[in-house]
Fold F-box domain-containing protein.
Amino acid sequence: MEQTQNLDYNIKEKLSMKITKFEDLSNEIIYEVFDYLNHLETVYSFYDLNERFQNSLINSNYPLHINISSILASKFQFTITNIINSHCYRIKTLRLSNPFASDMFLFIFRQISNINQLQSLILSQISYDNSLNKIINSLHLFSKLISLTIKTIDKVRNQNDIYLKIFQLSSLKYCRLSIKSSELPVSVPLATNQLSSIEYLSIENCVSITQMNNLLSYIPHIRYLTFENVAVDLHSHYQIFNTYNQLFNINTLTNISLQLYSIGFNQLESLFSDVYYHIKVLRLSPCLKFQSLEYLNANRWEQLIRNHLPSLRIFDYYCEFIFHRYLSSRFEYKAAIQQFRSPFWIERQWFFQSDCDHQQLFGRGYHPKIYRHIMFYSINSSRRKCYILSNQLYETSINLIKHLQIPKIYLIINFHDYLPHVTQLTFLNTFKMPRYDYYFIPNSLNRIIPLKQLTKLTLHCYCPFCGIIELLYLTSNVHTLELDSFDKPNFLSIENNNTFHLLLHANQIKNLTIRKVVILDQVKLLVHLCPQLESLTINFHRNDLNSIIQFILLETKCHIRYLSSLYILKRFKDFLKLIKNLIDSEKLLDDYEIKIINGRVYLCW
């Protein structure tokens, strides 16, 4: 931070001279300015201006941070020739996040002998095809690689092969993986001589308990560990799993985060019995719908922590239950949570909040049944960046919270603190938006968070379109908007809405996702609302395919010129053929690619 401030000060000092044109600046200042920009965008913007800028970009030796996210087909060859091919030896960070960039991937990795300074590689939103497989096979040639991220958008046949090749990388310290699979694979064998240097490992895809345990045997230097989807092991019993734990003990591991699915407390006790003795921070989120209350047994938790987690300082806990509202389980639940108020929990400053909501679910015969959806979670996590709004907040948490989630409207009303660093806001599906008072939510929120600071807004609840407009008007720096659904528009009322017209020139939304089915009128409103749009993800019925696709692609020529990719969440029979025929017959695009990956349609131009 101090280094950045000094750099800003130096630039301001040098700019204080009487200079009226950017090209009058010295090369030194221009390089400092370029360092703040994505290198590809810098080249696209300045390369053709004059010979001086061409030489500045070609002959400099400063490290390059390359981000290839939505490269246009028209710029592909230029990028290969003038950027990648000419400057391989300067690339320090490389981010590839384009499902259509297989050719780009292969070309770049043919230059491995020249990419000798690469320290960070991010492969995101990519398809696991032959090109990615070749990249993974070549990773060991990057001798300075310390950070690796791989996120696939389709399913991988052999996860274990990827794990083992990554563990062979001699310099790797940070590794984050999201490698989807159609089923839980057979676990990797326990490590013998192959040990990794990884200190931070995060795996977002599903793994079994045994798989998780065996992976740990390869990373004896691990300090921070995250598994976001740990499932019950179908191939072995937890009694066998416990024998594996006796083989190794990791002294360096201090921080662990686990999200568990259908795993009993007995298995959890076996998991913690030996390996995690030095843990200081534990973040745990079991999903226990329609199961017993064993994870709310405060006495068992106390014994587990005293005996096997003696160094634990932070216990960040989030648990969800669903019970039939008329069963005795709800009374057992109330009695169970009272046990978490004993001296053991109070002395450690570990406090918990409980929220309840009624849900209507359909069982056999489609007869509705009323269930109680219950959330039980920590409210004083001093390291938590994501926070579910509750009635009470401890001062140590305020300056760390970046992501605020709101389950109920009354919590906004009753909340009396201010969270100065929140940049992401999510309304959970239990939230009920007011249908007529569109000003209440944004005005109330502005009292507890800096709305102008938000960069991502997610609404998992139903929201009237006029309510979305009022909220966006006060969150003008949001660049990512995710909606579940909103009402069909009343064009007359929107046309007379002054906020809508002001918002047209103010919002910065570049990424828009609408998960539930939309009609053409809804698409028209959102497109006109977001002139800066670069990526759009939508869902629609087959009958609306022609009208929606044609409208969006025609608008890219005038209103949404920055849009270069369209993702469609639902596909139909002959989907690709229908879209191709439409685009070609109406001459909507000159150059484009389209493919289906993991059930989604990806269109890029």
